[in-house]
Design goal:
Layout lengths: L4 H14 L2 H14 L4 H13 L3 H17 L3 H14 L4 H12 L21 H10 L1 E5 L4 E3 L7 E7 L2 E6 L5 E7 L4 E2 L1 H6 L6 E4 L3 E7 H10 L1 H22 L8 H7 L3 E6 L4 E3 L7 E7 L2 E5 L7 E6 L4 E2 L1 H6 L6 E4 L3 E7 H10 L1 H32 L3
Antiparallel strand pairs: 1-8, 2-7, 3-6, 3-8, 4-5, 4-7, 9-16, 10-15, 11-14, 11-16, 12-13, 12-15
Helix pairs in contact: 1-2, 2-3, 3-4, 4-5, 5-6, 6-7, 9-10, 13-14
Length: 392
């Protein structure tokens, strides 16, 4: 007579905690025998085989789970299982071949024999997708475990293959203020990844959770051989990160969500090394810029006077609007004070935006007036300081 399922589950849990792998394997195999289509049990059996150092049996069990996911058309979960195998059996050619076949969209077990629409990954061609998927790391977190904290370095994007997470910030009294919950198939971590910035919120697993981690250093290596990957990342940035910057921007935050999204394709990404000028005083103005990552210094040599630093700009700040609105030449030089990435909006595209959304022009004019007043005050204060120094 078959053992009671509840009793088997209890035996598996207790023997797992105690490290009694002999009894754990026995109970888990019987549980799997009674529930062969339950992929969670199949994965638990594979895990128990790993713990008991039965590598070959573990691979077989994981492959059964992967095939179940493929038949259901779940690309990410299948990839996640293959990554589990490679965690304890790195370099296993059979698994690497299965990943390549799955990425080709020709896997016979995969439902509809085509890849699903997955943000970012679906924009890559077959060779690029194989390279990126091979670079992914599989991570697991228990319910309640912190995945990353506010203030951590943000150098990875994560995609959830199982479970769910909560994004939160801490209040003044240490309370957790929830911002969002994400589920299977969702991404997080892209803001820090693209801006070399710090995490602006913490992430906690609210269920036993599995993630695929895309590390920036790995993607940059792949981009050297596959430049298109960088282009895809740029587009992904526009949709996932730039829109968030525009949403809080004093310039474009006044627009609706749909209006902002319709503008994203108008921006071009530009990179500048530290010390390089983005715009120069006296040049014709042909674009407006929003800082994506890094810092920039605003400097003028007004009236032949020595160079005066007017401002230091950071992520989300914009510049270049004065000459576009007045038709006059650039009134200051803006240079990268760190490695700098900016989003450029050409004069013609800005004009289209202003024609469509007149409120943007009003906001620009307000900022232009304030900045010009600040510039005059700074110059006059410095000249007055120089005059006083000459009396000492």
């Amino acid at each position: 007579m078959a053992a009671n399922i509840d009793e088997l589950r209890k035996t598996v849990i207790e023997s797992y905690k105690q490290g009694d792998w002999k009894n754990c394997v026995k109970a888990c195999k019987e549980l799997h025998k009674q529930n062969p289509d339950n992929v969670a049990i199949t994965l638990k059996l594979a895990d128990v085989f790993v713990k008991s150092k039965q590598k070959e049996n573990a691979v077989k069990a994981y492959l059964i789970a992967a095939e179940t996911y493929k038949k259901g058309g779940d690309f990410l979960k299948a990839i996640g299982v293959y990554k589990m195998i490679l965690n304890f059996a790195p370099g296993l050619k059979e698994i690497e071949a299965k990943i390549a076949e799955l990425c080709s969209g020709k896997d016979k077990e995969m439902k509809d024999s085509s890849l699903p629409e997955i943000p970012l990954l679906s924009e890559l061609n077959e060779r690029e997708l194989v390279e990126v998927v091979n670079s992914l790391k599989h991570l697991t977190f228990s319910m309640g475990e912190i995945i990353c904290r506010d203030g951590d370095e943000g150098t990875s994007i994560y995609v959830i293959t199982a479970g769910a997470v909560k994004i939160f910030i801490e209040g003044v009294a240490g309370e957790k203020i929830e911002i969002a919950q994400l589920k299977e198939g969702d991404f997080f971590g892209e803001a820090g990844f693209f801006t070399d910035g710090k995490r602006r919120a913490s992430v906690m697993a609210i269920d036993d959770t599995e993630l695929l981690e895309m590390r920036k250093e790995d993607v940059e290596k792949i981009s050297q051989d596959h430049p298109h990957v960088r282009e895809v990342l740029a587009e992904f940035y526009k949709k996932r990160v730039l829109d968030k910057i525009l949403a809080v921007s004093p310039l474009f935050g006044i627009l609706t969500d749909s209006d902002r999204k319709s503008m994203l394709d108008s921006f071009k990404m530009k990179h500048y090394e530290e010390g390089t000028a983005v715009i120069r005083e006296g040049e014709e103005g042909d674009a407006l810029y929003i800082i994506k990552n890094g810092k920039a210094s605003v400097i003028t040599g007004e009236g032949g006077h020595k160079e005066i630093k007017l401002a230091e700009l950071k992520e989300g700040d914009f510049f270049g609007e004065v000459s576009l609105l007045t038709g006059k030449k650039r009134t200051a030089t803006v240079s990268a004070s760190t490695p700098l990435e900016v989003m450029e909006l050409s004069k013609s595209e800005l004009k289209k935006c202003i024609n469509k959304y007149p409120q943007v022009e009003e906001t620009l004019k307000g900022y232009m007036k304030a900045r010009m007043e600040d510039t005059i005050s700074t110059i006059m204060a410095l000249k007055d300081m120089d005059a006083k120094e000459g009396l000492v």
